[in-house]
Design a protein that fits this description.
This protein is mainly beta. The chain has two domains: 18-149, Immunoglobulin-like, CATH 2.60.40; 165-297, Jelly Rolls. Helices cover 3% and strands 47% of the residues. The chain has one helix spanning 18-26; strands at residues 33-37, 40-41, 49-50, 53-58, 65-70, 73-74, 87-95, 107-112, 129-137, 148-149, 165-170, 183-194, 198-209, 218-226, 229-238, 243-253, 256-268, 273-274, 276-278, 284-286, 288-297. The strands form six sheets. Strands 11, 13, 16, 18 and 21 form a five-stranded antiparallel sheet that branches. The radius of gyration is 26 Å and the shape is elongated.
Length: 299
């Protein structure tokens, strides 16, 4: 038997226990991560500054989630930069819990130093901690002030939330011919990071026509490329009229960083040109644009 969150314990003290509370919190979030704030910056000494903010933390799925507020402050000091090579430090937040072996019940921030290397990698966070940022410490640095971010923040995503547009890449070129260059390799490209497995919708808008008003027709190929691999191909049948074509595809990607691009090239006919900007009659044309839109968590 359990007691609902928001209901007082009975006369015998039976009520909501911490594990049940944590499982209820977990039901509201897709993943651990930052809710707001908690920006990490360098200082004139060897500590990192962590701004006030809120994070979702966990010691494992079975244990549920906690929501932790940090009121701002510094990490412990790290070592000065290696004389020869840079390293990456990972800054994290932890919701301490005496009942699970911690020394207190306070929210704490900390830092795990990486190994100096010509090509350093970010160290993992300790068990039960939530990563806030990874910072590259230059060789021979005497303070963290010169440390730079090497990644983006991992945000906690509310259960069932749609993240909207993840990327929009525009060419913004008028009268760009299909032969200059021949876009058999992706030319609208962006890289982004996802905190959970997501369903995505890719949409390519292309305003193209045959170069001259002579009744010419043709076919252009549009290739969607995901992480360097061809995902799918769409075809555009163009004429000598200025028409904005729309090509779409849906896909599911695992959490982590991904690179998505579009290639477009003439396949049949005289070739095409793009149309972009405001024309004499006041109409506005899009050129070529790739939009990556989130459609929710993948289950």
């Amino acid at each position: 038997m359990t007691t609902a969150l928001g209901v007082a314990p009975d006369s015998a003290g039976r009520g909501m226990d911490p594990p049940t509370h944590r499982r209820i919190i977990k039901a509201h979030w897709e993943n651990v991560g930052i809710v707001c704030g908690l920006d990490v910056t360098g200082r004139s000494d060897l500590r990192y500054n962590v701004a006030a903010g809120v994070a979702v933390c966990s010691r494992g799925n079975a244990d549920g989630y906690t929501e932790a507020y940090w009121n701002g402050g510094q990490t412990v000091a790290v070592s000065a930069g290696d004389p020869s090579n840079p390293r990456i430090d990972t800054i994290w937040l932890k919701a301490n819990d005496i009942s699970q072996g911690d020394e207190d019940n306070q929210v704490a921030v900390g830092v795990t130093q990486g190994t100096p290397s010509a090509n350093p990698v970010a160290p993992s966070v300790p068990s039960g901690c939530t990563r806030l940022m990874s910072m590259r410490m230059p060789a021979a640095a005497s303070s963290t002030q010169s440390a730079t971010m090497v990644d983006t923040q991992d945000y906690a995503i509310p259960y069932g939330a749609n993240l909207g547009i993840l990327a929009r890449i525009a060419e913004n070129k008028d009268l760009q011919a299909s032969s200059n260059p021949a876009y058999t390799a992706p030319f609208l490209i962006d890289t982004f990071k996802m905190s959970t497995d997501r369903n995505l919708l890719l949409t390519m808008y292309a305003c193209v026509s045959a170069p001259s008003k002579n009744g010419a027709k043709g076919v252009a190929a549009v290739r969607f490329v995901v992480d360097g691999n061809l995902y799918t191909t769409r075809k555009i049948e163009y004429t000598d009229s200025w028409v904005t074509h729309e090509c779409t595809c849906s896909l599911q990607l695992a959490k982590g960083p991904h690179t998505i691009g579009v290639a477009m090239f003439n396949e049949q006919g005289p070739g095409y040109v793009t149309h972009y900007g405001v024309k004499d009659n006041g109409d506005t044309y899009v050129g070529r644009v790739l939009v990556v839109k989130d459609e929710g968590v993948a289950r």
